[in-house]
Specification:
Its EC number is 2.3.1.-. By secondary structure, this protein is an alpha+beta fold. The protein is built from 12 helices and 18 strands. The strands form 5 sheets. It has a 6-stranded mixed sheet, covered by helices on one side. A 4-stranded antiparallel sheet has the order 1-8-6-3.
Amino acid sequence: MSIKTFLLPDLGEGLTEAELVRWMVAAGDVVAVDQPIAEVETAKSLVEIPCPFEGVVSTLHGDAGQMMLVDEPFISVNTGGEDAAVPAGEESERAQSYREEERAGTQVPAEDDAESDEGSGNVLIGYGTSSAQRKTSRRRKPRSGVASAAVQAPAEAVRVINPLVRKLARDNALDITTVKGTGPEGLILRTDVEAALSADAVQPEPATPAAPMPTPAASASASVAVPVAQAGEADAKTGLPVASSQVLSGVRKTIANAMSTSRREIPEATVWVDVDVTKLLKLRSKIKESDGQAPSVMALVARFAVAGLQRFPELNSRIDVEADGGLRHTLFEGVNLGFAAQTDRGLVVPNVRDAHKLNAKELSAEFARLASVAREGKAGVADLSGSTFTINNYGVFNVDGSAAIINYPEAAILGLGRIVEKPWVVNGKIKVRSICEMTLSFDHRVCDGGTAAGFMRYVADAMTDPKAALASL
């Protein structure tokens, strides 16, 4: 028989891990090429992984809920035939990757390493990149000193299949040659490195001269490790029973990191205004009566916002930090319009590419399509990245306003509150009008308050008198 092991492929945009949600096959099942075999949750979306081989499932290299790493064994399939009959160019994905990692630890790859295996170069879910690309991504330049000498030594390579395991050891100054592997044929796993680091941490330190006693202030500022309590146990800080405790992963981890980065990197300010949208709602009702359907309110506001960005392009931009610490301000021609969508997996931001080319009806259709795809967990990386400006309709949660956090690395986010009837002064008389609170959080580095206020006033005026605004678009 011939066993081929498929490695978890490159899932795009630098993602290195994914949570295994469920297997769609079991050991012993017959699988066909391109048949979906599992669902994994990345930091971006829920992805179905297809099988690149045809045969009988031999081994599933993971359980539901487990974090799986890119370029590690994912599934093994018995493709039939004899091992001896397998051509050299069609070896197991696992064996190929393993040998590449071994060579990376003992010799410097030739710069002009010719490859007969040519691929499309596309990162295709279920297939990864070509063999040549995988080899290129694993090349490492030798470091000076002992590391450089070790590269030229003919000694047996350290058995490490995953570059992330090597990095974990390197970041913690652990000599990986001293680690005993518990995997097949002595393969060093992540757990082996973590165990070695834990063992080093409890080793007694050599005696040193007594240090001065710390001052009370120093003692108070020192970091104290708090034991992690499990469900039902008492929390060390509060004394309260713990309902649940888990490390953030997947979408929740991505959201947490993005929010922290935005608050840390962007000096944001917020402006807001109450808008009379009575005429906007009447216009939408007339469109629905005549056409049978009408754009959503958010789509109409988005059309005005896109037009506003053409007049105030600073808000459709990005600030990047240069290598020397300088700041680069990039403005865009055109708008990729992101919109916040609440899903069972957390808040995600799909984006409508080239939103400036779409009318209100087309924007409404794209909002509905992308929201549906996102809630089903099937949005691709391209659907969830690349936006240049975001709109957030938090009115669906029945709240009036919110100072939203900017979707990093964008420069601004527009927020819409709920529409409620309020007494409003119109031409000197009090009338009942439909009022919506609109907010804009913006990066104060890209513009001053006058620009932000000008954009807000343009959008608010268009919402108040939509016929006049649409006539000029």
